[in-house]
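Treating backbone geometry as a discrete language has practical consequences that deserve illustration. Part of our work consisted of pairing the sequence of a single chain with a tokenised description of its backbone. What the numbers capture is local backbone geometry rather than side-chain detail. For completeness, the protein is quoted in full, as a sequence line and a line of structure tokens:
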Amino acid sequence: MRWTLDDIDWAGFDPARVDPDLLAVVKTASLVEANAADYVAYLRNVFADDPDFVAAAVQWGVEEEQHGAALARWAELADPRWSAAAALADFRANYRLDLDTDVSIRGSRAQEMIARQVVETGTSSFYSAIRDASACPVLREVAGRIAADEFHHYRLFRTHAERYAAGKLSLWARVKTALTRFQEAEDDELGWAWFAANVRPAQPDAVYAARDWGADYWVRAMALYRRPHIDNGVRMLLRAVGLAPNGVLFRGVSALLWFATRRRAAALAG
């Protein structure tokens, strides 16, 4: 463990520096991070005969759960009426990952490693964006530590991708795997996490199917991003699929993704 909750300067918390929209995003993220055990179980099944990777996956899960605990602790400071435990129980009761398999859902172990790098790219950029958007020094510290962990996890999965010769896959296979996992970011997991973290505590009789709760999350999350977060994420994505993280391709992809992010955020807000 590179840090623990005891390393955070919780005494520096200032309720006057809490942004309500950012608080709602943090509550949601705390549930997703705390639910890492399902992914760990899946990775243990898929890589059952690779003890080195299984050990790394277990440690990854421990660190992800610590992320959830740190975010939840900050959220409970910001909103003393909110119960992280109750929200997590509600989330887990209604959303479960369907990953009961001993074969990678990505097609191969090498592709699994590419997909994991995509996830860590997204989370590293996301927590960097939270760090830079927050006026609360405690949240900046928490988000900064998590962002550093997620970049470390990206490098971890990149190392194992080399072991499984991900670079020998065709370029199309690598890009397709990355794009598929990237598109899955808007699946039901975040919608249910938003609902359990923010809607049900205030409206116990609310119905999940009543609206697209994921949109409520994304309109706030996307507003956090700035161009440097997109640039860093694109560099990581290009490396994950074996392409040069600079030059004309980088500039084109980064500009396109920045435009798409702004447009999507505006559409959701409108």
